[in-house]
Amino acid sequence: MKKRLVCCFVILCMVLSGCAGKQGEAQKPLEQEEARQEAGASAAPSQAEEPEPSAEPEPTPEEDAFSGRWQAVESPQCYMDIARGDGDGYTLEIVWSGASRGDIIWQAVGSYDEIWGGVAYTGAKYEDVVKEDGTIDRIPVPEREEVTGMVYLEDDGTLRWIDDFDHMGDDMRFEKE
């Protein structure tokens, strides 16, 4: 019991000394300013320092390497639209057109992953079913309530698609239109 009391007291002292140290640091700039004013130095208003521009400006959606429509080289019935949102976010819509049964669509959102060098996404898979009257119903594919994957660029500028569940993108290359 005595050990616990001593430990609590030591921890309390450490916490309080840490807080006092922070308070002292916050007072230093104020004390320096007062010393300047007492010395009679004319304190010109300091201009706010502008942040240095980064070496690489953030690309606009039009300049972004991923944004745009991508057509599959091996399968003309497959394409994807990628749009850049705010920050490093993207929206993806991948469409696999099927003449009689309707289209299969993957709709997803993701962000650029610096480690993997691509846009990692999560979303859902849908099937467009054409009804007899010609209207289209977009129906979620139940076994694919959440899909994940990634799109990335190769050195030659082609886009590759990794579909974690269906592997529809295996060995497919996409070129920007």
Features:
single chain; 177 residues; alpha+beta; 8-stranded antiparallel beta barrel; 1 helix
Secondary-structure element string: HEEEEEEEEE
pLDDT average, as an integer? Answer: 76
Give the total of beta strands. 9
* Strand residues, percent: 35-45%
Stretches where pLDDT is under 50 for at least 5 consecutive residues are: 5-10, 19-30, 41-46, 53-57
Describe this structure in words.
By secondary structure, this protein is an alpha+beta fold. Helices cover 21% and strands 36% of the residues. The chain has one helix spanning 2-38; strands spanning 68-72, 78-84, 89-96, 104-113, 118-130, 136-140, 147-153, 159-163, 173-176. An eight-stranded antiparallel beta barrel has the order 1-2-3-4-5-7-8-9.
Topology:
Blueprint: H1 2-38, E1 68-72, E2 78-84, E3 89-96, E4 104-113, E5 118-130, E6 136-140, E7 147-153, E8 159-163, E9 173-176
Antiparallel strand pairs: 1-2, 1-9, 2-3, 3-4, 4-5, 5-6, 5-7, 7-8, 8-9
Task: Describe, in short, the structure shown.
With 177 residues, this protein is α+β, with helices and mostly antiparallel strands. Helix content is 21%, strand content 36%.
